[in-house]
Amino acid sequence: MNLLGIETACDDTSAAVVKDGHTILSNVIWDQQRVHEKYRGVVPELAARKHTEVITYVIESALKEANLSYEDIDGIGVNSMRGLLRSVVVGVAAAKVIAYTQNIPIIGLHHIEGHIYSVILDHPDIEFPFLCLTVSGGHNMLILVLGHGQYKLLGMTLDDAAGEAFDKVAKFLDIGFPGGPVIDKLAKTGNPKAFDFPRPMLKKNNDDFSFSGLKTSVLTTVKDLQKQKIDIPVPDIVASFQQAVVDVLVKKTIRAAMREGIRTIAVVGGVSANSQLRHAFVNVTAEKNIKLYFPPLALCMDNAAMIASLAYYKLKNGESSSLSLDACSNTPFGVTMNT
Ligand code: KG4
Ligand code: ZN
């Protein structure tokens, strides 16, 4: 079964063809970084316009790379439930046109559920139940994955997601966009113990996160140093900030896993590419004899292969959407997983 995935949640225009849920035949990503970097953040209006401009080219490139034509596609999965609304609309509209003209099934999917499938795609043998930390620019959740399409949401961020905090700190320090990879690299040259930033929500007896206060603490520290006319030790600042984020994500995930008696953890989403986060998870899970899964780096960021993999399981299960499928910007995870 060759499924076409389409993903346009934020600033990546992506189309992919995945065979039988696990074999990636193509995964084309048009990264809009150049469009947004001069604004040091994603401009929703420009993102939607770029998606509109390149979506056909990206889909046709995905088919070409897979050595297939539209007639060879058995169904389409599209993120229709989460992201910048006008960006999501572009992907949904394109998917509907193809489904209609080719007379093939379409399914609207949740972006965050797609991220979970970035690890299932690559590890078909992963055993349920597992605990999944989704950590990205737009979302930060702890989800118990009980089986295909079966979830229990344990906790989520109450304000900024971790990736958003990375992006905002980098923007404030004017060190580049997107902030995550820039900080990851720069932090390697800094001292993670130089500044004692707060570890938000660590003492709270729940599975929620909050990174807005940590970001503010970094900003306040920098402003204080500026007032005192002290040169800003940027590598130390970002290394200490990153360490605080990593401590919270790792400790809260491990605590939830131990409490729930879960022996398998997956970490997905853009921030799962972070080298310090990976290192910390590898160490602690080895110590506690917990199995650990990350998606390959190419599948950490938003991509359509994860959407096509998820579509395979949904369509195989008899689920599909109608051609009146709508685009939504913020469907709560687990509430309406299908339309
Ligand atoms: O999953 P994704 O592509 O989009 C969303 O669903 O939000 O994740 C993008 C986020 C951005 O906030 C970016 O700064 C962050 O992932 N990110 C990283 C790294 N690479 C990307 N954060 C920390 N370290 C990285 N190496
Ligand atoms: Zn994402």
Strand adjacency order, main sheet: 3-2-1-4-5
CATH topology of the largest domain: Nucleotidyltransferase, domain 5
Q: What CATH architecture of the largest domain do you see?
A: 2-Layer Sandwich
Separation, N- and C-terminal Cα atoms = 22 Å
Number of strands: 10
Mean pLDDT, rounded to whole units? 96
Describe the structure.
The chain has helices at 33-36, 44-65, 85-102, 111-122, 162-173, 179-187, 212-227, 234-260, 275-287, 304-316, and strands at residues 2-7, 12-19, 23-31, 75-79, 106-109, 130-135, 140-147, 150-156, 264-268, 291-293. It has 339 residues and is of the alpha/beta class. The chain folds into 2 domains: 2-115 and 299-316, 2-Layer Sandwich (Nucleotidyltransferase, domain 5), CATH 3.30.420.40; 128-297, 2-Layer Sandwich (Nucleotidyltransferase, domain 5), CATH 3.30.420.40. The chain has a 5-stranded mixed beta sheet, sandwiched between helices. Helix 3 (85-102) links the parallel strand 4 (75-79) and strand 5 (106-109). Helix 4 crosses helix 10 (304-316) and helix 5 runs antiparallel to helix 8. The longest helix is centred in the C-terminal third of the chain and has 27 residues, at 234-260. Zinc ion (ZN) is lined by residues 9, 111, 115, 136, 138, 269, 302.
Question: How is the secondary structure organized here?
Answer:
Layout: E1 2-7, E2 12-19, E3 23-31, H1 33-36, H2 44-65, E4 75-79, H3 85-102, E5 106-109, H4 111-122, E6 130-135, E7 140-147, E8 150-156, H5 162-173, H6 179-187, H7 212-227, H8 234-260, E9 264-268, H9 275-287, E10 291-293, H10 304-316
Parallel strand pairs: 1-4, 4-5, 6-9, 9-10
Antiparallel strand pairs: 1-2, 2-3, 6-7, 7-8
This protein binds 5'-O-[(R)-(carboxyoxy)(hydroxy)phosphoryl]adenosine and zinc ion (ZN).
